Amino acid sequence: MKGKRIGTGAALAVGTLAAVGLAFAPAALAVTPDTATINADCGMFGSGEATLTATQDGTAATVTVTSAINAPLALSEDSITSTLTFVNANGGTTTFTGTENPAIAAGDPVTVGPLNGTVASGDSLESYGGSLQIVVFGITVTCTATGPQAPGPFVFD
Protein backbone atom coordinates (compact mmCIF):
# COMPACT_ATOMS: atom_id res chain seq x y z
CA MET A 1 0.00 0.00 0.00
CA LYS A 2 2.91 2.32 0.78
CA GLY A 3 4.27 1.93 -2.79
CA LYS A 4 0.87 2.87 -4.20
CA ARG A 5 0.75 6.10 -2.13
CA ILE A 6 4.28 7.11 -3.23
CA GLY A 7 3.35 6.46 -6.86
CA THR A 8 0.18 8.54 -6.53
CA GLY A 9 2.07 11.35 -4.76
CA ALA A 10 4.77 11.35 -7.45
CA ALA A 11 2.13 11.49 -10.19
CA LEU A 12 0.42 14.43 -8.46
CA ALA A 13 3.75 16.23 -8.07
CA VAL A 14 4.62 15.76 -11.76
CA GLY A 15 1.14 16.89 -12.78
CA THR A 16 1.38 19.98 -10.59
CA LEU A 17 4.83 20.87 -11.98
CA ALA A 18 3.55 20.44 -15.54
CA ALA A 19 0.56 22.72 -14.84
CA VAL A 20 2.81 25.35 -13.26
CA GLY A 21 5.19 25.09 -16.22
CA LEU A 22 2.33 25.71 -18.66
CA ALA A 23 1.13 28.67 -16.64
CA PHE A 24 4.55 30.31 -16.90
CA ALA A 25 5.32 29.25 -20.47
CA PRO A 26 6.01 32.18 -22.81
CA ALA A 27 3.03 33.33 -24.84
CA ALA A 28 3.03 32.67 -28.56
CA LEU A 29 4.61 35.48 -30.54
CA ALA A 30 2.16 37.66 -32.36
CA VAL A 31 2.10 40.82 -34.41
CA THR A 32 -0.49 43.49 -33.62
CA PRO A 33 -2.50 44.51 -35.44
CA ASP A 34 -2.50 41.56 -37.84
CA THR A 35 -4.30 43.52 -40.59
CA ALA A 36 -3.91 47.14 -41.67
CA THR A 37 -5.06 49.27 -44.57
CA ILE A 38 -3.37 52.04 -46.49
CA ASN A 39 -4.26 54.36 -49.31
CA ALA A 40 -1.69 53.69 -52.00
CA ASP A 41 -0.58 55.56 -55.09
CA CYS A 42 0.81 53.35 -57.83
CA GLY A 43 1.38 56.14 -60.35
CA MET A 44 -0.10 55.57 -63.78
CA PHE A 45 -1.14 52.06 -62.69
CA GLY A 46 -3.79 53.35 -60.27
CA SER A 47 -4.43 54.18 -56.65
CA GLY A 48 -6.78 53.23 -53.86
CA GLU A 49 -7.03 51.24 -50.66
CA ALA A 50 -4.75 48.26 -50.07
CA THR A 51 -4.88 45.68 -47.27
CA LEU A 52 -1.77 44.31 -45.55
CA THR A 53 -1.95 41.13 -43.47
CA ALA A 54 1.00 40.21 -41.23
CA THR A 55 2.02 37.05 -39.35
CA GLN A 56 4.95 36.26 -37.06
CA ASP A 57 6.76 33.08 -36.05
CA GLY A 58 9.75 34.03 -33.92
CA THR A 59 11.96 36.34 -35.96
CA ALA A 60 10.34 35.21 -39.23
CA ALA A 61 7.43 37.28 -40.43
CA THR A 62 5.27 37.45 -43.53
CA VAL A 63 3.09 40.12 -45.09
CA THR A 64 0.46 39.60 -47.78
CA VAL A 65 -0.74 42.62 -49.75
CA THR A 66 -4.02 42.93 -51.61
CA SER A 67 -3.19 45.98 -53.63
CA ALA A 68 -4.98 49.05 -54.84
CA ILE A 69 -4.39 48.18 -58.48
CA ASN A 70 -6.20 45.75 -60.74
CA ALA A 71 -4.47 43.39 -63.11
CA PRO A 72 -4.84 44.56 -66.72
CA LEU A 73 -4.18 40.98 -67.87
CA ALA A 74 -4.56 37.55 -66.31
CA LEU A 75 -1.49 36.70 -64.23
CA SER A 76 -0.36 33.17 -63.49
CA GLU A 77 0.45 31.91 -60.02
CA ASP A 78 3.86 33.00 -58.68
CA SER A 79 4.58 35.29 -61.64
CA ILE A 80 5.16 38.52 -59.67
CA THR A 81 8.41 39.49 -57.94
CA SER A 82 7.69 41.76 -54.98
CA THR A 83 9.67 43.89 -52.52
CA LEU A 84 7.79 45.57 -49.67
CA THR A 85 9.77 48.09 -47.63
CA PHE A 86 8.57 49.37 -44.25
CA VAL A 87 9.98 52.21 -42.15
CA ASN A 88 11.06 50.76 -38.79
CA ALA A 89 10.41 53.07 -35.82
CA ASN A 90 13.57 51.57 -34.27
CA GLY A 91 15.59 53.00 -37.17
CA GLY A 92 16.13 52.16 -40.80
CA THR A 93 13.88 50.02 -42.93
CA THR A 94 12.73 46.41 -42.98
CA THR A 95 12.20 44.61 -46.28
CA PHE A 96 9.90 41.70 -47.16
CA THR A 97 10.43 39.91 -50.47
CA GLY A 98 8.99 37.04 -52.45
CA THR A 99 7.65 35.68 -55.70
CA GLU A 100 4.38 34.30 -54.41
CA ASN A 101 0.98 35.35 -55.69
CA PRO A 102 -2.24 33.51 -56.51
CA ALA A 103 -3.46 33.27 -60.09
CA ILE A 104 -5.16 36.59 -60.81
CA ALA A 105 -7.88 37.14 -63.42
CA ALA A 106 -7.84 40.27 -65.58
CA GLY A 107 -9.56 43.08 -63.71
CA ASP A 108 -9.08 41.53 -60.25
CA PRO A 109 -7.01 43.24 -57.52
CA VAL A 110 -3.36 42.23 -57.52
CA THR A 111 -2.45 40.16 -54.43
CA VAL A 112 1.16 39.35 -53.56
CA GLY A 113 2.55 37.24 -50.77
CA PRO A 114 3.16 35.97 -48.36
CA LEU A 115 6.34 38.03 -48.61
CA ASN A 116 9.08 36.97 -46.18
CA GLY A 117 11.05 39.16 -43.82
CA THR A 118 12.97 39.10 -40.56
CA VAL A 119 11.87 41.07 -37.49
CA ALA A 120 13.10 41.65 -33.98
CA SER A 121 11.04 41.89 -30.84
CA GLY A 122 9.67 45.41 -30.54
CA ASP A 123 9.96 46.28 -34.23
CA SER A 124 7.28 48.78 -35.21
CA LEU A 125 6.82 48.75 -38.98
CA GLU A 126 4.93 51.44 -40.91
CA SER A 127 4.29 51.42 -44.65
CA TYR A 128 4.05 55.22 -44.90
CA GLY A 129 7.48 56.31 -46.09
CA GLY A 130 8.20 52.85 -47.54
CA SER A 131 7.06 51.26 -50.79
CA LEU A 132 5.79 48.17 -52.56
CA GLN A 133 7.64 47.36 -55.75
CA ILE A 134 6.25 44.64 -58.00
CA VAL A 135 7.73 43.39 -61.25
CA VAL A 136 5.38 41.80 -63.77
CA PHE A 137 6.39 40.90 -67.34
CA GLY A 138 9.57 42.96 -66.79
CA ILE A 139 7.55 46.08 -65.90
CA THR A 140 8.23 47.61 -62.48
CA VAL A 141 5.33 49.16 -60.59
CA THR A 142 6.07 51.14 -57.44
CA CYS A 143 3.29 51.91 -54.96
CA THR A 144 3.64 54.25 -51.99
CA ALA A 145 1.30 54.93 -49.09
CA THR A 146 -0.23 58.42 -49.12
CA GLY A 147 -0.64 58.40 -45.33
CA PRO A 148 -0.07 56.24 -42.25
CA GLN A 149 -1.52 52.75 -42.15
CA ALA A 150 -4.67 52.17 -40.11
CA PRO A 151 -5.16 51.21 -37.36
CA GLY A 152 -1.42 51.72 -36.88
CA PRO A 153 2.02 50.22 -37.48
CA PHE A 154 2.68 46.50 -37.17
CA VAL A 155 4.34 45.84 -33.79
CA PHE A 156 6.13 42.51 -33.43
CA ASP A 157 6.63 40.57 -30.16
From the structure above, extract its key features.
50% strand; mainly beta; 157 residues; 10 strands
User: What separation lies between the terminal Cα atoms?
Assistant: 51 Å
* H/E topology pattern: HEEEEEEEEEE
Q: Quickly count the helices.
A: 1
Mean pLDDT: 86
- Count up the domains: 1
Class from helix and strand fractions: mainly beta
Helicity level: 10-25%
- CATH-derived architecture: Sandwich
Based on CA atoms alone, the radius of gyration comes out at 22 Å
Sketch the major β-sheet.
10 strands, antiparallel
- Which of globular, elongated, flat, extended, rod-shaped describes the shape? globular
Strand content: over 45%
Give the CATH topology: Immunoglobulin-like
Return residue spans where pLDDT drops below 50 for at least 5 consecutive residues: 4-27
The CATH class label is: Mainly Beta
How many distinct beta strands? 10
Structure description:
The protein is mainly beta. The protein has a single domain (31-156), classed as Sandwich (Immunoglobulin-like). Helices cover 14% and strands 50% of the residues. It has one helix and ten strands; from the N terminus they run αββββββββββ. The chain has one helix at residues 2-23, and strands spanning 31-32, 35-41, 47-57, 60-70, 81-88, 93-98, 109-118, 124-136, 139-145, 154-156. Strands 1, 2, 3, 4, 5, 6, 7, 8, 9 and 10 form a ten-stranded antiparallel β-sheet that branches. A hairpin with a 5-residue loop joins β2 and β3. It is globular, with a radius of gyration of 22 Å.
